[in-house]
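Onboarding guide, step 5: your first structure request.
Type a short instruction followed by the sequence, for example:

Predict the 3D structure of this protein.
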Amino acid sequence: MKKLALAAICLTYLSSNAMAQDAATTIANAQRALGNVNAITYSGSARDVAFQQCGANATALRCQGTHNPMRPITNYVRVINLRAPASRHTGNTMNFGGGGGSTTVAAGTFFQQVTPQQANVSQPWGGSLEFYITPWGFLKGAAENNATVSRRRVDRQSYTVLSWSPAVKAPSGASYVINGYLNDENIVERVETWLGENIMGDMHIVASYRGWRDFDGAMVPTEIVQTRGGWPFFEVDVTAASGNPRNVASLVPAPAAGGGGPGGGGQRPPMMVTSERLGDGFYRLTTGPGSYDSLIIEFRDHIMMLEAGQSQARALAYVEEAKKLIPNKPIRYVMNTHPHSDHTPGLPVLVAEGATIITHANNREFFERALNTPRTLLDDTLARNPRRARVDAVEDKRVYSDGTRTVEFYHIYPAPHSNGLLVAYIPREKVLFQGDFSLPAPGQRGNDHIQAIVPALVKLDLDFDRYINVHTSAAPQTKAELWAAAGR
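The system replies with structure tokens like these:
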């Protein structure tokens, strides 16, 4: 028995050592196949999106769907310095300028970087992964972080797969994993990892590298496509590239003193919620200046919440306040005005409460896919109290009524901001509730969103007096002020 045990230990050791050697050989072969560069730079054109948004670019004024259209980036340049390690990419954009939803076109600049401090694998994974999901960064990380090697089949193609984990752990305590898929020529065709994201759970991040070409000894892909959560996120068409550029130090400068990281340490103060009574069992919840406001409405045997409060902290505070104001009734519904990233973070709290999301039909696939993704990397309310997200999809109009209370929902389209915008109308108190159709200062003309919503409301002929914005207003606003902002 002792001999058998010793033999088993030896086999295990030899097997582990062989796998390590196989990984090291695989990494070296892949680095050689890419030209054994210490730095790489490439240029061309690119496209990106503001996460969970669309339409914010000068070439397409209307949102067609989640992350569609993407924003063009011209004069795109990226440099990756493996010795630093660091990366930086820049380009020119044409954005909507003027703020507040204006579609006036203005020139802009795309700029992103991963500094040496961020590229440290003991630092937050979200700050460094853009370096490590590149083929060159991935192989560097694999060489330095005990990579393992295996064989897998993806889309009917067989790959050699290198896998490794950064030192930093996810909020749940789980390890992050990054995989690189190498073809038979040892070229990296795909890199994937997962990152905990408030709406998308264990968000799958995939970078695909296609059309590899030899640029004077350095192999570079001519087509780069990155998706997040299965949705388009960033794309590049490469037209020029070079290995080991002489000016790499100036192309990836050190961050300015005090820059390169988030500020504002320490714990945030608790949310102080105040409520305004709008009618019987009908309240506006706010946390003061800068708040994202919610409305709660009492039905016979449940509560409906309009908007989830923007952040998880505010959503938790609003849920607590709702239960105080309307005790012994569950929150059965939560309405989302549109799926932009500043209007969705509170939704996991409401899903954990068992609430069904009311949103426009154009947003249904996004929410069902995102909120029903596993949350093994997160330690938030929904991760601790998992429930399946349910969605009630509204088309042009939907009415919720139980004989004691009625709430109506309407789709506002066309509008440049989103193709999934809903407004809520509460007929008893003559209240219209909306998100992002913000009124300008008195006497000023409303932006393009205001110019879009008013004709829709005229057509709907809704009899409202109070105009309530998710983005809190300093003073109550009225239909007359909305009409004045639209020049009526």
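Each response can be followed by summary notes, for example: The longest strand covers residues 201-215.
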